[in-house]
Amino acid sequence: MLRNSRTRCMAMLTILFFICCSGLVAQEYKAYWEMPAYSISAEDSIFLDQLQQDTFNWFWEKAHSSTGLNPDRAADNSTSNAHISIASVGFGLTACGVGAERGFVSRIQAAERVDKVLRTLLRGTMGSESTGHVGYRGWYYHWLDANSLSRTWNSELSSIDTALLMLGVIFVRNYFDDPNDALETAIRDSASVMLERVDWRFMRNPNTRGISGGWFPEDGFINWEYRGYNEAMLLYILAIGGDLNPLSESSWGFWKGGYRYESTDYFVHPFITFSPLFGHHYPHAWIDFREIYNKELELLGEKYDYFENARRATYASRAYAIANPKNWPNYGPDEWGLTACDGPRNFGFNGYMARGASGQNIVDDGTIAPTAAGGSIAYAPEIVIPMLRQLKDKYGSKLYGNYGFRDAFNDSVNWFDNDYIGIDQGPILLMIENLRSGMVWEVMKRDPIIVRGLQRAGFSGGWLETTSVQEEAELPADFGLQNYPNPFKTGTTIQFHLKKAQAARLEIFNVRGQKISTAIDKNLSAGQYKITWRPDALPTGMYWARLVAGKSAKTLKLLYLR
After folding, report:
1. By residue range, what is the domain housing residue 369?
2. What is the pLDDT of residues 158-182, one digit of tens each?
């Protein structure tokens, strides 16, 4: 009996000790709105200048020479960069804007590169066959061969990677905004065609309302959907706000139904968890979540937003490294950060995998990725900048190369990666820019897809209350308008459907608003109609088809390429 009493006493003392220590942790942590505005020192500014330029140079110099597409990965001396990641391309498109703003390249150089990339992607064909295409129904395959401009490695038609690509497309559509510049106009037109042809409902599971992980031409849809907090938050926002067959708001309900609100064994403040940090980086790289709120956040406090959530996830990862339960030789307050990255593999450790400590499901083999901290710099600069500077100073050229930080390292076996990975380089570059100027966030706020997606998902407050972007009217119910192929080289079929007899007029305009031709102007019976339009001797570029039927009208963009 006495032994049991002593055991209970020791247990109570242990609990009290944990509570006291937890209280210390709680006192040390502050929400971002409780922190003073972060002031970047002159030395830190020099460091960030160099890191941004080096990281930008990876996207600029390692792009495929004839297409401008960005590879999945490349080392310092890589010369064959034809293995393309479409997600890397999304980051690369946005990188062009950052490079132009920072003076790493001129605006016209950036525009020329972006135009090349968009034209390349539009030149690739869409189709359901397993070979010879870049994608299907507006979605793109995860990996492409830049030389053949087609699917490679039997990869899936990827929902999340297409979303990352489209975020880059949205960025350039709004960044290159000069109405009097022909090249920038062409960029906006090409970007709009890409965005308007994504059939968002194609990836939806009709039973769950969730978005599938992808689709294979050989086997159909991947048998799981994105649900619960991770990087796919951006996918749902785009799909709900998209142009062609957007998802209903109920899909957001399915998505957030998998949320886990919890603290970790090393960080006492609860948050919506996802263990690898990349899942917190990707949405914030493009969307400013500060002071915009949603109902699912109310459980965590009045001012709580997704920006604060990502900050807590970052601190949780660092707290794990400080506790260092596996006793890695280098873990501590200035060496931390677990996310998806390469690994040693040959030393009995894991290779590429999703590591993480920002949740109860911890995956850790001693491998740190600089992008884990670098991608968190906008919401936790006070702990990220010292960490990145420490890594560069301590490990030198073993970790920091011609293009910034290599992907990962494991100090316990003296392993340092040779490669840089596009989807890890991107968050570093974009989030540094968001910390310094907020430029990427501000550009994205102009786009109706982003605004619609957030509003339809239930977000309100902050910049959403003052945005000048207006909700577009829903597509009229009495007719639809589409064309295929688009883009096209010789001609395109314009198709529409009338549910009732009415007067209809179909006209073609050039980008200056000048009418080129009238294809139809008469009373039509209810039914399906098709007409082939051939530009013949007209110059290549963007044209508009406008259908007026009864009191409804719809305009469609047509991209003519040779």
Report:
1. 42-466
2. 999 999 999 999 999 999 999 899 9
